[in-house]
């Protein structure tokens, strides 16, 4: 009975652990596979945008820039502060109500509500607000730039997977064709119709073809691994990608370098971000320069206080008491009595003190910076250096963009020429191999000659696939620069 329970419990535990693991994985990474586990390029990009850590970091930085911008706007509003102080005194102290010395334990409280606003400080606050607004806009462009870079890398990885898969299919086809030749030669060798070396040469070719299958399979696995890393999803060897080469015509690109650069410089986030950072740095210089000007501010407050020592004297009645004066009647001195008021000390209530002690203040102040240990001047110098740096970075960004476009055009033209040459070469080698295949079947040529013809055709077929996808990559990058639909 005990063994039966163990047999039941183990599969159940494994099932629960597997379910929890799968649930956590689904909660951690957003994956939206297409039907039959086939992903399109657009789906890969969308998944990567949700999961890629670089994009997430750019989003967080943009949110931080937004918070800084909101704070800079709030700095233009009046501040409002409330204060409460309660103190217990022991021994000799000042009665805050009568302003006289007392020697007793008492408590006191003060309450205030104050506000102030800067009326003018060389437009420093306004320029800081403009600076942070531009920094926020640049942050959004940096976020888009992270997505742009990821998109470019995904296009490259996506095409690398398709290219490797097509090369793998060709390699498998080539190996299958060679295997048939080996089977045929094995039969003929058993019949003594051929030289044993012919069979050995063909087996050697089969080994080469199988090595090519292993090599292209490894290239495919590496390309898939790179793609899934960029998408930040678990690697799957069964992951399928939708084909994008159908209907694509290999032809010269229509636009020129200048046309592509003009379009890219106006729409790419990396260029916009660089320009916005230059404007932001300029506003920062103006904001710091404003701190060297006098600051005019308006302030005011509402105040009240309370003391447990505060009291009021209340009349309780009068009594007749002798005085130092006297009158003489019939030579007899008679003391004069006078009335004396009797009072009792009563504490003033908390609410009454709060109401009766209310006072207000309103003032205007002017603060003039004189020295401040040259802090502001050095801060201004640093801001100017930072402005020069971002200007240089913006110029470098545009230069590098143009260089990338020129390089893309150079590679694209080379790939186009290579593709055309390889296309003609494939036709030539196909005819050559067809003739060699017929002659080999009739025993007119040796296995070595047949293998040479086959290797020539295999090599150019694989090179043609590489050239095709290289050309597609270059053209799609140029399309991306111009904000065109990728597919």
Descriptive notes:
There is one protein chain. The protein is an alpha+beta fold and 487 residues long. The protein contains 10 helices and 10 strands. The strands form 4 sheets. A 4-stranded antiparallel sheet has the order 2-5-7-10, with helices on one face. A two-stranded parallel ribbon has the order 1-6. A two-stranded antiparallel sheet has the order 3-4. A hairpin with a 2-residue loop joins β8 and β9. The longest helix is centred in the N-terminal third of the chain and has 67 residues. It is elongated, with a radius of gyration of 45 Å. The N terminus is likely disordered.
Can you lay out the helices and strands and say which pair or pack?
Elements: H1 2-28, E1 38-39, H2 41-51, H3 53-74, E2 79-89, E3 92-95, E4 100-103, E5 106-120, H4 124-190, H5 196-231, E6 240-241, H6 257-267, H7 269-290, E7 295-307, E8 311-329, E9 332-347, H8 350-356, E10 359-367, H9 375-441, H10 447-481
Parallel strand pairs: 1-6
Antiparallel strand pairs: 2-5, 3-4, 5-7, 7-10, 8-9
Helix pairs in contact: 2-4, 3-4, 4-5, 4-7, 4-10, 6-9, 7-9, 9-10
């Amino acid at each position: 009975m005990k063994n039966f329970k163990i047999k039941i419990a183990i599969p159940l535990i494994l099932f629960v652990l597997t379910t929890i693991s799968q649930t956590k994985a689904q909660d951690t990474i957003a994956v939206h596979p297409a039907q039959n586990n086939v992903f399109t390029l657009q789906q890969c990009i969308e998944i990567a945008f949700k999961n890629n850590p670089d994009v997430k970091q750019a989003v967080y930085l943009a949110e931080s820039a937004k918070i800084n911008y909101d704070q800079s706007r709030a700095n233009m509003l009046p501040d409002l502060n409330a204060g409460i102080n309660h103190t217990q005194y022991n021994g000799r102290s000042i009665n805050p109500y009568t302003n006289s010395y007392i020697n007793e334990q008492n408590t006191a409280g003060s309450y205030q509500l104050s506000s102030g606003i800067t009326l003018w400080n060389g437009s420093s606050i306004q320029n800081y607000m403009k600076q942070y607004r531009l920094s926020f806009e640049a942050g959004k462009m940096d976020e888009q730039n992270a997505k742009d870079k990821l998109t470019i890398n995904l296009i490259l990885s996506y095409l690398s997977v398709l290219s490797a898969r097509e090369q793998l299919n060709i390699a498998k086809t080539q190996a299958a064709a060679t295997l048939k030749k080996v089977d045929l030669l094995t039969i003929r060798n058993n019949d003594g119709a051929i030289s044993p070396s012919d069979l050995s040469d063909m087996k050697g070719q089969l080994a080469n073809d199988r090595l090519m299958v292993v090599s292209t399979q490894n290239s495919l696995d590496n390309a898939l691994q790179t793609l899934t890393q960029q998408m930040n999803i678990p690697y799957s060897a069964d992951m399928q990608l939708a084909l994008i080469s159908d209907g694509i015509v290999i032809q010269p690109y229509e636009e020129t370098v200048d046309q592509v650069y003009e379009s890219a410089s106006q729409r790419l986030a990396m260029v916009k971000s660089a320009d916005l950072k230059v404007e932001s740095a300029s506003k920062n210089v103006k904001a710091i320069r404003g701190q060297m000007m006098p600051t005019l501010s308006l302030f005011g407050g509402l105040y009240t206080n309370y003391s447990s020592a505060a009291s009021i004297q209340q009349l309780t009645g009068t009594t007749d008491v002798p005085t130092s004066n006297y009158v003489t009647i019939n030579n007899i001195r008679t003391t004069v009595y006078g009335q004396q008021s009797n009072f009792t000390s009563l504490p003033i209530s908390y609410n009454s003190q709060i109401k009766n002690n209310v006072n207000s203040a309103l003032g205007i102040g002017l603060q003039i910076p004189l020295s401040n240990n040259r802090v502001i001047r050095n801060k201004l110098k640093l801001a100017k250096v930072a402005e020069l740096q971002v200007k240089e970075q913006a110029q470098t960004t545009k230069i590098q963009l143009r260089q990338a476009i020129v390089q893309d055009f150079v590679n694209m033209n080379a790939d186009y020429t290579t593709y055309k040459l390889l296309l003609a070469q494939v036709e030539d080698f196909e005819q050559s191999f067809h003739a060699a295949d017929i002659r080999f079947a009739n025993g007119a040529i040796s296995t070595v000659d047949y293998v040479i013809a086959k290797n020539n055709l295999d090599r150019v077929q694989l090179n043609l696939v590489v050239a095709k996808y290289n050309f597609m990559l270059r053209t799609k990058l140029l399309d991306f620069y111009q904000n065109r639909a990728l597919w």
